[in-house]
Design brief:
Number of domains: 2
CATH topology of the largest domain: Alpha-Beta Plaits
Keywords: Isomerase, tRNA processing
Pfam families: PseudoU_synth_1 (PF01416)
CATH class of the largest domain: Alpha Beta
Distance between the termini: 23 Å
Low-confidence stretches: none
Order of helices and strands: EHEEHEEEHEEEHHE
Largest sheet: 10 strands, mixed
Shape: globular
GO molecular function, one term: RNA binding
CATH architecture of the largest domain: 2-Layer Sandwich
Number of helices: 5
Family: Belongs to the tRNA pseudouridine synthase TruA family.
Helix content: 10-25%
Subunit structure: Homodimer.
CATH superfamily of the largest domain: Pseudouridine synthase I, catalytic domain, C-terminal subdomain
Strand content: 25-35%
Mean pLDDT: 96
Number of strands: 10
Radius of gyration: 19 Å
Length: 252
């Protein structure tokens, strides 16, 4: 048996998240069906983390055990011929038997994208949350600063979370703004959050709160007060899923 590790990129628009769910179309189901077709084996795929319905991944990491003798350098090409156009695997390699894509991950980065201005980008409509009016990005940046470090993120976590602890460390929180598109008269704002782990809906709740800061409904300083409150009701709404992408996962 070999433990194979791969990177998976996907447009999550048509899927009910990564993890297998009864009677639902998920990324894991599609990957496992492709592996069954390729190897004849019933293979369980492990991921670096679950993404919700409509959420995308630039760099999801998976691993699985197989008895197949297919050379590792042929796995990606073989699997990609069996996968739909909105899922792609890359970077296949053999890893130690004790490697676990979720437990071994030490750092993850998510990106949330908002498009502001007169018109949405029709080609990126599944990847960006459209906000028709300008946002105060300087205030949003200032609000992001309060998230850096180790905090109890209860206020930025869904009440449906089952985690025993809501303490997480955010290593970096930054924002990038694209230049104004002269045709669309709009621009994209990218919020990047890097940490040792994220709670259920944490990034989307942060994004929803920052949008309110950008709208002037909250001050940048209120982000600290929200953290201190440790109460989900203190934060803003959960931003739409299609603006979120799992950007990068790092290992030791």
């Amino acid at each position: 048996m070999r433990n194979i590790c791969m990177t998976v990129s996907y447009d999550g628009t048509a899927y009910c998240g990564f993890q297998t769910q009864p009677n639902q179309n998920t990324i894991q189901d599609v990957l496992e069906r492709a592996l069954l077709s390729l190897t004849g084996e019933t293979i369980k795929v492990t991921s670096s983390g679950r993404t919700d319905a409509g959420v995308h991944a630039r760099c999801q990491v998976i691993n699985y055990f197989t008895a197949s003798k297919i050379p590792v350098e042929r796995w990606c090409m073989a699997l990609n011929t069996l996968l739909p156009a909105d899922i792609l695997v890359s970077g296949a390699k053999v890893v130690d038997d004790d490697f676990h894509s979720r437990r071994a991950a030490v750092q993850k980065t998510y990106r949330y994208t908002i498009r502001c201005g007169k018109h949405p980008d029709v080609f990126k409509r599944h990847l960006e949350f459209y906000h028709p009016t300008p946002l105060n990005t300087e205030e949003m940046r200032a609000g992001l600063e309060y998230l850096i470090g180790e905090h109890d993120f209860t206020s930025f976590c869904s009440i449906r979370s089952t985690k025993l602890s809501n303490i997480r460390t955010v290593y970096e929180a930054r924002m990038e703004c694209e230049l104004l598109d002269p045709i669309l008269q709009s621009y994209a704002i990218h919020i990047y959050l890097t940490g040792n782990g994220f709670l259920y809906n944490m990034v989307r709740i942060i994004a929803g709160t920052l949008i309110q800061v950008g709208e002037g409904k909250r001050s940048s300083e209120s982000v600290k007060d929200i953290l201190d409150a440790r109460n989900r009701a203190s934060a803003g709404p959960t931003a739409m899923s299609h603006g979120l992408t799992l950007w990068e996962v790092l290992y030791r």
